[in-house]
Amino acid sequence: MAAEEKLVVIISTEGQVALPSAIGKRRKWGAGTRLLVEDTPEGVLLKPAPAFTTTRPEDVFGSLPHRGRPKTLEEMDARSVRTALKP
After folding, report:
1. CATH for 35
2. Residue 15 — very low, low, confident or very high, per pLDDT cuts 50/70/90?
3. Per the domain annotation, does 11 fall within a domain?
4. Domain total for the chain?
5. How far apart (Å, rounded) are the C-alpha atoms in residues 21 and 28?
6. pLDDT digits (tens, 9 = 90+) for 26-80
7. Which residue has the higher pLDDT, 10 or 56?
8. CA–CA separation, 68 vs 55, rounded Å?
9. Distances in Å between the alpha carbon of 24 and those of 14, 36, 54, 68?
């Protein structure tokens, strides 16, 4: 499909639009792909939806149980260095 080629789609009575298969194949969007729909001044933008929602540290802080004394920053840093050096 040429870049300048214009494709026309029709909105169904339910408000649905079928994406041309050439676009779906090029983007590797198969059946069941979740897309975000964004209304922009230039038109409608479709983007793949992320597999997971964005999580901030404060959303999950303290959610895992822990027994024992808290680790110091130095202990955590030392552990991460040892883990990174393992083959």
Report:
1. 2.10.260.10
2. very high
3. yes
4. 1
5. 10
6. 999 999 999 999 999 999 999 999 988 888 888 887 777 878 888 888 888 887 7
7. 10
8. 26
9. 21, 15, 26, 52
Q: Please work out, in degrees rounded to the nearest 5, the angle formed at the alpha carbon of residue 57 by the alpha carbons of 83 and 87.
A: 10
Residue 64, domain member (yes or no): no
Neighbour-count burial for 33-51, b at 16+ CB within 10 Å, e otherwise: eeeeeeeeeeeeeeeeeee
In this structure, is residue 36 part of a structural domain? yes
- The reply to whether the predicted model has a pTM over 0.70 is no
Structural domain of residue 43, as residue ranges?
1-52
Q: How many CA atoms, within 13 angstroms, populate the side-chain half-sphere of residue 21?
A: 0
Is residue 48 in a domain? yes
